[in-house]
Amino acid sequence: MIVVARGDKSGVDGIPMLLKIPRLFDPWGGYSILGFGDILLPGLLVAFSLRYDWLAKKNLRAGYFLWAMIAYGLGLLITDVALNLMDGHGQLALLYIVPFTLGTFLVLGRKRGDLKILWTKGEPERVCPHVRLESMEE
């Protein structure tokens, strides 16, 4: 992961591919690393939940976005705890973040009865406003 994150040896500054998180109580000033893939992939699910809520015209509490953000934050917190407990060795952020975000999304979708629509179509059932206007004119 570190070799990929550093890029090639051309000497040209590239796009940073990881975040360095300083360890809180490390007397040597060490840091843990978290790759962008570990952040962006679950972030796509959070972005999807915002899009779904917007299309379904759900408010913040009744939608999925707020709960996905809370789960994402908890997943990052657990990742940070795991980094500190394991001294930065052998952690996989996706092992902690994905179950929190995807699990929360699946549980809420099942509980609210939206899981089949979320999984297959990805957008809520909605009627085209033009169809409604034509039927009212007749």
Automatic annotation (TrEMBL):
* TM segment ranges: 28-50, 62-83, 89-108
The protein's name is Signal peptide peptidase-like 2
What keywords are annotated for this sequence in UniProt?
Hydrolase, Membrane, Protease, Transmembrane, Transmembrane helix
Gene Ontology cellular-component annotations: cytoplasmic side of endoplasmic reticulum membrane; Golgi-associated vesicle membrane; lumenal side of endoplasmic reticulum membrane; lysosomal membrane
Organism ancestry: Eukaryota, Viridiplantae, Streptophyta, Embryophyta, Tracheophyta
Pfam families this protein is in?
A: Peptidase_A22B (PF04258)
Keyword Electron transport, does the record have it? no
Family annotation (InterPro entries): Peptidase_A22B_SPP
Can you supply a Gene Ontology BP term from the record?
membrane protein proteolysis
Recorded source organism is Anisodus tanguticus
Instruction: Select a single GO molecular function from the record's annotations and give it.
Output: aspartic endopeptidase activity, intramembrane cleaving
